[in-house]
Amino acid sequence: MWTVIDDHEAAPASHVALYGVRIRTRYKTLVALLGEPNGADDDDRKIITTSWLLQHSEAGDVVRLHDWKATDRYRSCLPTIEKFRSLPSYYWHITAEQEETAMLFKLWLENRL
How far is C-alpha 104 from the geometric centre of its chain's CA atoms? Predict the structure, then answer.
C-alpha cells in the first residue's frame, strides 16, 4: 500500500532520478486516486510543476510521481500548468532510489487506473 506523504517527510534519497519508468494517465485520474499534488522542490519548479510523494507502508520506500519539463515554466512554447493538467493524458514520471521500487509503484498504480 502506498500513501501520500509531505515533501519534508521524505528522505533525500527519494529524489534520486531514474528515468524511463513512466505511466500514462490523466491528471484528474491521479487527483481522484491520490488527492491534490503535494508540490515540487523549490529548485525544480521550472522542471517539475506537478508531483506527488508517496511512501510504501511496509517497506518505507519513497517514490515521486511527477511531470517533467511539461509546462511554460520550463519553456514558453509549452502549455500553462492549467492547460497541461487538462490534457487527455500524459506520460507521468516515476522516480525512486531503486528502479524496483519505481516499478512496484507503477504496477500498484496501474491496477487502480
Answer: 14
